[in-house]
Design brief:
alpha/beta; seven-stranded parallel β-sheet; binds uridine-5'-diphosphate; binds nicotinamide-adenine-dinucleotide; 10 helices; two-stranded parallel ribbon
Length: 329
Amino acid sequence: MKIQLPKKALVTGAAGFLGSHLCRRLLADGYEVTAVDNLFTGTKSNISDLMDSPRFSFVQHDIILPFWGQFDEIYNLACPASPVHYQHNPVETMKTSVLGMLNIMDLALKTKAKVLHASTSEVYGDPLVHPQVESYWGNVNTIGIRSCYDEGKRCAETLAADYRREYDVDVRMVRIFNTYGPNMHPQDGRVISNFVMQALHDEDITLFGDGLQTRSFQYCDDLIEAMRRYMSLPRETVDAFCAKHGLGAPVINTGNPGEYTIKELAEETLRQIPESKSKLVYRPLPSDDPKRRKPDIALARELLGWEPKVPLKEGLSKTIEYFRAQQIS
Ligand code: NAD
Ligand code: UDP
């Protein structure tokens, strides 16, 4: 009888918010998981419950430097995602996106691993097309404070497309729209964690600008489901899909099309934390802050038979529950 060995997955950015959920899901799906992270924004506490699993191992490593190992699948999530953090050390952010991606692509080329790269809605910049479709090339400032992230991620997409065309690497990309949920760092700086933490501590809720800019918020479980479905597709299906839609590389939006102003998000947060004494206050809008954002998910629907299931109210409630529990423990 032939023994079936578990498939091997490498997850970079594994101790971060999304990486930790992905590791958990891959273990549940029977994979052997190697988790890599330099712990810049991630924390070991996000994955501490996985450490006892014989199919899980953690390596503290910076993906700017090469990494070696034989894997069936590589999920490249390493990169700070919160504007506060990626702007803290912009050169490092760019290096992570570009040099990190080169290292991942070289590893995939040598080992024939399949890759899923975490790209972002930020490749559309401050979009002039709404909702954002994959064929839109974006409106991005090359020299602004968000550019290290936006242009780094755009360059990573280019590397993926060229490694696929030139060397036939099987790489797929998701353009992730604002995603939230448990395991976000309380001091992460992104809007949902900020508002929930502020409301729980009776601090002012800081609305940047007039609060009328919009975002579309995706609950983490919906994204992880899309990622897993995408990676389980055969190469031929993905190639045929690209040809059908004229895509230069397999890239799909993943997000929840529900669109809310930031003020509406603040009001919903306060509705769900009724005991809070917090007040809404207005602070200057950071430069290049996109005014509207909403994914067109027609391609993801068609390719993956997927759509998000968790509405903002429900996901926000689960996230508040998580942050409340963190305060007590
Ligand atoms: P996060 O900051 O919680 O996680 C990122 C992880 O990457 C952290 O654990 C961090 O320590 C690690 N990391 C950063 N630089 C590294 C390096 N050079 N080498 C090794 N590890 C490194 O952010 P997240 O929300 O979990 O985002 C994960 C990925 O998804 C990122 O690539 C991000 O750009 C992408 N993304 C996230 C969102 C979102 O809304 N959450 C939206 C778009 C794209
Ligand atoms: N924002 C805000 N108050 C905060 C944090 C963020 O009003 O305390 C706004 C921010 O200006 C942006 C939106 O919320 O318009 C989403 O910000 P986030 O940093 O979560 O992600 P982005 O989509 O900008 O990368």
